[in-house]
Amino acid sequence: MSLTFSFAQTSDAQTIADLVNSAYRGDSSKAGWTTEAHLLDGQRTDANEIKQKIEGKNTYILTAQDTGTIVGSCELVRDPEASELYFGMFTIKPTAQNRGLGKEFLKHVEKLALGWKLRTIKMTVITLRTELIEYYVRRGFHVTNKLIPFPTEDRFGRPKVKNLEMVYLVKDIHE
Questions:
Q1: Please, what's the b/e burial string for 121-154 (b: 16 or more CB within 10 A of its CB; e: otherwise)?
Q2: How many domains does the chain have?
Q3: How far are the Cα atoms of 94, 146, 163 from residue 170, in angstroms, in the given order?
Q4: For residue 37, what is the domain's CATH number?
Q5: What are phi and psi of 43, to 5 degrees?
Q6: Which residue range forms the structural domain that includes residue 115?
Q7: Distance between first and last Cα of the chain
């Protein structure tokens, strides 16, 4: 696969929401290794939330396409004052995982951050997702000691596990 990248338009919102939900929750997510289905029930997002993010100030939804089909996406939130980029809701289509697309996607995000004159990329990951944390550590992220409770609003899903927490991961970037 050869990926092309673009920023999402509001007309992409439902496609992106469907992709994100298919990768994080339910049976379809079990086709990939990034599933949270063992930790959470319910949806991860919806088209309205994606649309709001697309329309937000300093917030972007970046998509990756293969032959015109969206196979990956993420949320990017620029904070020029802190010189950092929040990277979240990272999704690769479950049946396209384990092909190096995530690495290619992350490299593109780093190039964007550098182009925006940002020096740090930060993210949050559920602490029980050790395989995912290890993936990001191999890509240069550092696990911090900053923990936050998992959001309890239903739009994030219903926890199957008590006391879920998220940890911040940070990567310093430079040319």
A1: bbbbbbbbbeebbebbeeeebeeeeeeeebeeee
A2: 1
A3: 25, 11, 23
A4: 3.40.630.30
A5: -85, 160
A6: 4-172
A7: 26
Mean pLDDT by 10 residues, the chain (175 residues): 91 96 79 77 90 94 94 95 95 88 94 95 96 95 95 74 94 88
Longest dimension (CA), the chain: 42
Are the beta carbons of 77 and 33 closer than 8 angstroms? no
Q: In what order do the strands lie in the sheet with 120-126?
A: 4-7, 59-66, 69-79, 84-92, 120-126, 165-172, 142-149
* One-letter amino acid of 72: G
- Rg, the chain, Cα only: 15
Return the DSSP state at 95.
G
Tokens of residue 164, six digits: 């879920």
Is residue 138 within a helix (H) or strand (E), and if so which, with residue range? helix 130-138
